[in-house]
Specification:
Helix content: 25-40%
Distance between the termini: 22 Å
Structural class: alpha/beta
Number of helices: 11
Number of domains: 2
Largest sheet: 7 strands, mixed
Low-confidence stretches: none
CATH superfamily of the largest domain: Type I PLP-dependent aspartate aminotransferase-like (Major domain)
CATH topology of the largest domain: Aspartate Aminotransferase, domain 2
Bound molecules: ligand T4K
Number of strands: 15
Mean pLDDT: 97
Shape: globular
Radius of gyration: 21 Å
């Protein structure tokens, strides 16, 4: 069988991209908020219905910057989820803050809002939940808790681009939301990311922080770094955005085909569609429990047939070696996340994945259970 990886980048045609970047050869303007950057920013603000979108060279630096922009006191505590990519927790720790891990819900793997309040102390400054796999957090409950306790909410929406709840974009919840536009995402700019927010002062700070803290030709007001999206990245975004709806429709067909084989199989659990949510079909996580084979056996059987599924997210971040000294470390403190991490496999999913390949992948999986 031809090799199938967990995902494959969506790309415009070669000709479409060349046409888009032709102007860069005329202008010699390659980065620092040029015409492609400006065009993509405008298009995203319109698409997401969010007053401010500021573009980044990747999602991680976007998250690090938005946390930095909030100017929390060092040593402050941030309630977050361990069931995520390394980036979420690293962005908190690299800002001199302490992650406090909240367990996740059993049905959609997002932060369990019922467990947040007992974790709040006088040191708590913010909540950083993750719309993991594109599943939306309980934004109403989380935002209500944050308001009650005067906390900021920064959503890691890396997986949730183009997801809507009751017709409102995932960009619009909390004080800010971060998207990743990495090559592996539903919408990519090769590498890339964005912060979305409504606050004029916040976006002004972010725009300076990502450009060395420069506020004008002769003035530097923050100790900022360099996290700007370049023109080639932005041009890829402008092209990919034209095809987004079609990409999502193709992903939907792939997910429906998987469901036609796997839904209802004993010992296999897929996330149910969320109520009032328009999904983006970013990932296909499957939990194996009480199936004839465990997650690692299914992973190995697929691998043997040249299919690479991934154990996103194993290990969970509160069991990372680099966090061993954290007082809040320890997978046993978040039992649902630990349970999921040992049993979840994300199956190959991308717009151009042939339905016949989905059939074969499911055959391999179902055979493991016999
Ligand atoms: N928060 C969350 C919740 C995140 O999941 C992420 C990133 C971030 C924050 C940070 O955002 P960024 O700074 O990355 O924008 C990948 C991605 O690199 C990472 O973006 C993503 N999450 C994470 C979940 O997955 P790897 O190490 O699994 O990627 P890799 O290189 O193994 O690629 C996976 C598959 O994708 C390959 O087998 C084939 C395909 N692929 C990969 C690349 C690099 C392509 O088709 N084209 C490509 O260019 O981390």
């Amino acid at each position: 069988m031809e090799q199938i990886l967990v995902t494959r980048s969506s790309m415009p045609s070669f000709e479409e991209y060349c046409e888009e970047i032709k102007k860069l050869w005329d202008s010699h303007w390659l980065t620092n908020m040029g015409v492609e950057h400006q065009a993509l920013q405008r298009q995203l603000e319109e698409k997401l219905g969010c007053p401010h979108v500021t573009l980044y060279t990747n999602g991680h630096l976007a998250l690090e910057n938005v946390i930095a922009a909030m100017e929390f006191p060092k040593g402050g505590e941030v309630i977050t989820t361990p069931f995520t990519f390394a980036s979420t927790t690293h962005a908190i720790v690299r800002n001199g803050l302490t992650p406090v891990f909240c367990d996740v819900r059993e049905d959609d793997y997002t932060m369990n809002a019922d467990l947040i309040e007992p974790l709040i102390t006088e040191k708590t400054v913010a909540i950083v939940p993750v719309h993991v796999y594109g599943n939306l957090c309980d934004v109403e409950a989380i935002d209500a808790i944050a308001k009650k306790h005067g906390l900021k909410v920064i959503y890691d929406a890396a997986h949730a681009f183009a997801v809507q709840y009751k017709g409102v974009s995932s960009a619009c919840f909390g004080d800010a939301a971060m998207f990743s536009f990495h090559a592996t995402k539903v919408f990519n700019t090769i590498e890339g990311g964005a912060v979305c927010c409504r606050d004029d002062a916040l976006v002004d700070t972010l725009n300076k922080l990502k450009n060395f803290g420069i506020s004008g030709p002769e003035n530097v007001v923050y100790v900022g770094g360099n996290a700007k999206m370049n023109e080639f990245q932005a041009a890829m975004g402008v092209c990919n955005l034209r095809h987004l709806d079609e990409e999502i429709a193709k992903r939907k067909a792939v997910v429906e085909r998987y469901r036609s084989h796997l839904d209802g199989v004993k010992g296999i659990r897929l996330c149910a569609p969320q109520q009032d949510v328009e999904p983006n079909y970013a990932y296909l996580p499957v939990v194996f429990d009480g199936f004839g084979a465990d997650r690692n056996e299914v992973f190995a059987a697929l691998k043997e047939q040249n299919v690479t599924a991934r154990k996103y997210f194993y290990p969970i971040t509160n069991s990372f070696e680099c966090y061993a000294a954290l007082p809040t470390a320890g997978a046993e403190k978040t039992p649902v996340a630990a349970y999921l991490a040992d049993r979840v496999l994300t199956l190959p999913l991308y717009a151009d994945l042939a339905l016949a390949d989905v059939d074969r992948i499911c055959d391999i999986i179902l055979n493991c259970g016999k």
